Each structure stands twice: as structure tokens, then as C-alpha cells.
């Protein structure tokens, strides 16, 4: 029995063990990798994918998928940049961008529920349309010259006690999402929706509202990522966020979340995000060609998913 | 074909499922295999047909020891297993299903539709059923799908047919057709192993009965030389006492009433009342509209008109959320599809219908949840390792108790039960009847839809009979008997 428990624990902790091993191995090989400064910048880089992956995990837990996040990120960022250029206070512009991101996500959710579209198709539509709208809105050109606001720089480039602001945000959002999914009735509804929507509906769960909410969360978090990128780059690019949905799905899958919904843990997605970041950062430091990096990343995902016990 | 299985052992991961199990099947007999859920009936049959390999024991077919490596080998030898979950591809046609993997091809390797159609027609005629071979499988009733499975077996010239709970989803009429077919197969010399929980059917159909208990062979008896009590005793190893425990509920005022409930094309002008503390049985053939009426009451049916009253007050149930708010609970007929999140824990399943009770401002109160679930496991005698036990590892009876626990603690004023003991073994059935009695004694109004007449008669205070979407009559406990119910259910007059 004891043996079995240990085995279960190892399987349960599999992703975490993989992360620790990965960090250990690269640390041994590379002295540049194992510095505090590098770890902090690694965390900061991973936060961009992290926010999106947290939203993606919520959506996937309900049995859906959100391909629209990259485009929502792009459009929300473009809007924010143009508001700032138009003279709006930076704080207000950012808040408004979050509202727009949430609204864009909500539209995806409504297409999935009220429009009865399959999530893949509905969010493929969102992805295509929002990207197109971004291009039209920006006329294909970046929006730069956003002024010298402290707020704008602080979000992406600021430090508190030597730790980058995005890292704080990453941890805070993680804690909130963990609380929401594990400790609230909404979290239970999310899992129930993905586990057996019919049974959940008959038990009084409002399936449609639950689904709309997760797409809204996903949209909002995509906008958060966008704002950090905007702050770091100092400008909005029309192609910003392209392909980001795939990294978020990869992190969620690495964490063992079932693509059929109902099973998965947000902390494992967190670990999945870190694994991807460590791979990127580590291989860059080790000077691995970016072509090989993709192959390695793909194989790591394959191994992780194949060894997952809940698969 | 004669089959002898002796001293069969089988374990899964250190868990002994069969210990010295076996039975003896004769030529041209219908042999019932009975036992509680988990007694090992299906496992034994899976060993016979090569799905599993045995750890020990012998299998002798027509005097020769055999060990089939897979179901195809068994099928070649003439032994076909028709599983409880039918093995059909719903998007294909009848003939495509029947010829799956063994299509008749012409010289060019193209399917010869004509030849296949002729073959299918021949087999279906032999069964005496009228099904269009070109029909898509998902447009057939469950009973018809079952017939196709039997037809598939006949096509490979089966000498032994193993049927696992074949009538679980059939209407009375379809059951009668099935029995005719099974009887005629016996006359042609086919032996049949018949696995079922339904005592009445076994006594009506079978020649001999073998009972298994906890994976061990108990006894084999000729049907005329035994009776139901005897069989139950063999199955559970003790006397079960009264099959339907006595209820001591005070029947109060009218708690629930529907007036002129109508859903065009499904049911019409349904009127009835249920008193608090009363169990209203609902009987009728499958497809009569019983389940649909219940779904309509629960707000889970579109285009419903009519009035619903709870304690004299008109209520509107536009969706299940409204219905639950109005004090109605609904235990559906298919717990695996509609009742449970199978992969989830007992705790999460019970909690999901009680989220309001165990939370404050949307935040779960872990202590309240633990208490509620522990109470549920204790009070309803759910046999499990604890609140985190996943539901797909529970027996049918315990799964059903989890579904009951879900609803009992929502404090319903009306609880609707649709086939509450389907696929539940006899010991757990009695426990479920006790749960129903407890609820009635607490003043809950209960509606119980059931296809098992003895259950309806044993548990109900009054019995409503539905036929083709119309309420044909409501009988009191004293006047009701099987014959009267069947007369009403099949369109006769009393």
C-alpha cells in the first residue's frame, strides 16, 4: 500500500519532478543559466505565456479550446496603444484594454453557447476576425511613440525589491486562479461542465454562463499579457501575439490537463509554463539552434503527455 | 454444444475476481447465470470467449479442452457474446454493421451490396423481425439494435449465444419478441447463456439456473425445482426478508400538482397530484412518454404548456435551475450519462447539486462540504474507501446511492425517480427502497417511474399508467395488480 502511494505521488508530481530535473541538468551544464538574474528574467519571460495558459486551462477544463487568445492579445494591445496616443491616461487606457479583452472573450463564449458552435470553430473565427480587425485598425503599421509615462514602463520593466513587476503579477494571478478553481463554487462548476455537462445541467449548473465566463477570463488574461508586452516593447505591433495560443495549449497539455475537459490542475499548468520557459531559455544559453529547439520542445511535450497517469 | 467450465480462477492486480467459478451448459438449453453485481458472471463469460485469459481451471467444449485467445477465435468455434453495451456503430446502416469486417466482395474487391442485402434479409426473416437493412443504426430502437446483434450472431452460425442483460433497455413488447426469438433458437439447438437481474424473466424463460457469489460457484438448479426466494438466498448467502420494506409514512396534503401538461406529439393533457409522504408509481411501456413528462416537470423539455403547482402555488420551471429552486429533485434513468460525473469523486458529485449549501458568497466551506459528504456516505450506506473514491469504481448500487445523496440534501419537496433501481443488484435494491421510504416518511412527495411491475406494485401508494402520451388511469394500491396495469398500458379498458 505504502509503495503504491509513493508511486501515485510520483505520478501526481511528475511534471514538477520533470521541471526540477530539467533545471538541475541545465544548471550543471551552464554556469550562466544558474544565476539569480537569469532565473528572474526566465520567470518574467514565462509570465507572458503564463497568463494566457491560465485562461486556456479554464477553457479546456470545460471541454473547450480558445484559439482566439493571440488575436485578442493583439487587438487589445493595439486599442490600448491608440488610446494612449489619443491622450488618455495610461491607467485608464490599460483598464479599458482589459475590459475589451474580456468582451472579446465573451463574444467567443457566446458563439460557443448560444451560437452552438464547436469551440474549435468558434474561436478559429475569433482568431481570424480579431486579427483582421487589428490589421485594419492599425493599417498594418505599428503604433509607437507612446510617451514617457512611468505607469506604462512600470508594468513590464519595473522592479520591486529587485524582482520584475511581471513576476509579481504572474504569482498574484496564479494565486487568484488557483483560489477560483479550487475553492469557489464557480470552480466546481467549471470542472463539472467539462466532466459531464448533462449531469451538471440537471444538477442546476448554468452551463452556458459557466462557459461564457471561462472565455471571458481567457480574453481578459490575454489582454494582461498584451499590456506587459506593450510596456516592454514600447509599441504595439499588428502581428503581436500570433501563435501564442499554441504555447498556452502546450503548457496546459504539459500540465496534464485533459483535452476532453473535467480533469486538470492549474498549478500543473504553472509548472508546464515554467518547463517551456526553461527549455527556451536554457537552449538559448546553450546555443542550441532554434530549429532544434522546436523539435526538443515537441518531444518533451510528447513524453510528458504520454507518462501522464490521468490521460 | 456443451460447455463445461470448472475451477476457474482469475485475479486482476492481486484482486481475486473469480475463485473456483464454473458452470455446465447443455445442448439446446437456456441457462441463466445469476449473482449480485460483482459476482463474476461477466468475467466468467469473458474468460470463456477469450476476452480474458484464466489463471487456473479448465474449459471443455464438446469434450475437448480449449483456450480461446480472443473473441474472434471463440466466434469461429460458434460462441458469441452479446454484451450489455451493444457493440454497434450508430452512423452505419444495419447491413454495414452486420457485415463489418467480413464484407462480401466481388472479384474486383468491391463490396457486393446485392449479395449482402440478400443475406441480411434472410437472417432477419429467420428472426421474424421487420427491419430495413438500409436503415441507419441510430434510427432503430434499442430493441431493434439488440435484434441486429442477435442477427449478427446467427450469421456466423453461432451454437452458443451469451446474452448479458439483454432486456435492460427493452420495452415489454420488445422483450416478448426477444423471448420468442430466444425460444425458437433453443428449438434449433442453440444453447443460450442468459445473464439477468430480472427474476421474473428468468423464471419465465430459462431451463436451468447457475448462481455465482463473490466469484465462486454456488449451485445449479432446474427452474421448476426452485423459486425466487431460494435463488435470492443462494445469491446473497442469507435471507433477504421482505423484498419491499414496510413504509410508515403519513400521507399529507397535496404537495404537487400538474394540470393539462402538454407537449405536442409527446404527451397531452397530463393531470395528476402527489401528496406529501406519498409515493406515486408511474407505469407504462417504454416510449409511452413517462420520462418525457418527468423531464417537462423538471424544466428540461421544450414546448411544454400547462400548469404546475407546488403546495398550491403556481410555479414556472423554464429550466432545471428553476425546478431545483422550486424544490424539485430529479434522479434520471441513466445515471452514467445524466446522473454522475463518473470520473469524479463521490464528494464532487454530491456537492455539485448542493453548492449553495456548502458555500458563502461563492467560496466553498471545506468543513461544511466534508460534513455533508460524510453524512451522505453514512446515512445512505455508500460502500467506498472514502469521499475521494471515484464513482466509476463503485458498483451500480453504490453509484445510485451517490445520485440519491446528491438530491436528498437539497431538501426537495418533490423527488422524481426514473427507474431508480435499474442495473442495481438485489441487496442494494432493498437499500434504495429504504431510502425512498425514509424520504416519504420525512414528508417528501415521491414520483417513481419504473418498468418493473413488481417494484411499482410493491413501493407505490398509487399508480399512474401512461400510454402513448396519455394518462390512462390512476389506480390505488388496493385495486392495482399486474394485469390491470398491463391492460391500461397496452390500450385496454378496465
C-alpha-based Rg of chain B, rounded: 24 Å
Distance between the terminal alpha carbons of chain B, to the nearest Å? 47 Å
* C-alpha Rg of chain A (nearest Å): 20 Å
Strand content of chain A: under 5%
Largest interface: A-B, 22 and 28 residues
Mean of pLDDT of chain A: 91
Helix content of chain A: over 70%
- The N- and C-terminal alpha carbons of chain A lie at a distance of 23 Å
- DSSP strand (E) fraction of chain B? 25-35%
Q: What string, H for helix and E for strand, traces the elements of chain A in order?
A: HHHHHHHEEHHHHHHH
- Structural class computed from helices and strand pairing of chain B: alpha/beta
Assembly state here? heterodimer
Question: Which spans of chain A have pLDDT < 50 for at least 5 consecutive residues?
Answer: none
Low-confidence stretches of chain B: none
Major sheet of chain A: size, sense and barrel closure? 2 strands, antiparallel
Q: Total helix count of chain B? A: 17
Biggest sheet descriptor of chain B: 6 strands, mixed
What's the arrangement of strands in the largest beta sheet of chain B? 6-7-8-3-9-10
Total strand count of chain A, please? Answer: 2
Number of helices of chain A: 14
Provide a brief overview of the structure.
Chain A has 311 residues and is mainly alpha-helical. Chain A has helices at 2-12, 14-29, 36-61, 69-85, 90-113, 119-138, 150-157, 165-183, 185-195, 197-202, 207-233, 244-254, 266-285, 290-307; strands spanning 159-160, 163-164.
